[in-house]
Amino acid sequence: MNGEAQDHAGVAGLAVGRSLLQALLAQIANLPLAILLGVSLALVPLGVGLALLPPVLLAVRGLANQQRRWAKEWSGVEIPVPYRPRPADASGFGRVKWLLTDPATWRDMLWTLVNSVLGVVLAGLPSALVVYGLEGVLVAPWLYSLHSFGWGPFWPLGDYGPPGAIGCLLLGSVLVLTGWLGGPPIMRAYALVNRSMLGPTRARLEERVRELTATRSETVDASAAELRRIERDLHDGAQARLVALSMHIGLAEQMVKDDPDEAVRLLIEARQASGTALTELRDLVRGIHPPVLAERGLPGGVQALALTLPLPVNVTVDLPGRAAPPVESAAYFAVAEMLANTVKHAGAERAWVDVRHNGTALVMIVGDDGRGGADPSRGTGMRGITRRLAAFDGTMAVTSPEGGPTVVTMELPCALSSPKI
């Protein structure tokens, strides 16, 4: 029973501390961002707002995403992220268009304005009750007592004397208890209000269902094509080698007595055929799931890819843990395809790969100093990678002006496992 009481006290104490944090954040972050949004929107007709809006809106998204995480971690209220995927042309005016045409952006704006008040009034209520109650318990009774004896120049408190001190003590205790016990339900109510503003609308949910239906169809088609490729490679490659190997061994068995030299020659050919078949099987397995991923993870896989290219590749990988094997495989093949395009089409002298996790997604940036002009709509390789990433709700953005450089940014939403010690 004591353990349960301690757990409840700990939860209540955390809720009060989080209440104070939310109240401070509403004034330190929400209010300035609301003012910046108003100024940026007012300056849009002058053109200045087009430059100011993207960083302000992205800052609002970051703050809203933090609230979504806190709502789930602190109160068990899950708020799905409703933003539309970043399109391939999301640079310059395209980025402004992407942000402003997303209904979730306008809901974020409304939340920013409302939360600058709501975060103080509702989220800050438990901490305000506790702080004000502590003042009534620890400070006001002494002031009343001293005032009743005429000690010191205090502000007018009335001639209540000790009864006034007792009243402050009782009232302060009630306020502290109310704020302490009411902290968790009040914070949950605050999270539910946030969900009503930051969660996806019904229209967005319907749109998301359509997107997932299309993605599933593309994934099924891609899986079927991959299966046909594996079957074809097995039939035309390794299977044919193994059939030839069996024939050579059978002929050698028949000739081992009559013509030993010919039998030895056939066995040598059989050994060579077995080596070729083994190599083809290894290549086929590597195309399904590279062994280097299982052995060394995505960092080692990307490093190994870079070492096979005929140009210098600067690789930077910063991952505090490992993603799920299917996600690692998709990321590996996406980077491999982009590097292959660099070698085949870019005419580049150097390339670079940057892989990191931003807290919600695996971000892979592949760039080169080549001739540029890469267009995802013209290449089957890039379209294939787009479909592979879409199966995991991932996105790809390509920036490749004529003359270069080419920068491909790919994101795969995922969580990382804890690093092994």
From TrEMBL:
Q: Which Gene Ontology MF annotations are present? A: ATP binding; phosphorelay sensor kinase activity; protein dimerization activity
Keyword Transmembrane applies: yes
Which reactions are catalysed by this chain? ATP + protein L-histidine = ADP + protein N-phospho-L-histidine
Q: Which residues form the Putative sensor domain?
A: 21-198
Q: Which residues form the Histidine kinase/HSP90-like ATPase domain?
A: 330-414
Q: Which SUPFAM superfamilies match?
A: ATPase domain of HSP90 chaperone/DNA topoisomerase II/histidine kinase
Q: Which organism is it from?
A: Actinomadura harenae
Q: What is this protein called?
A: histidine kinase
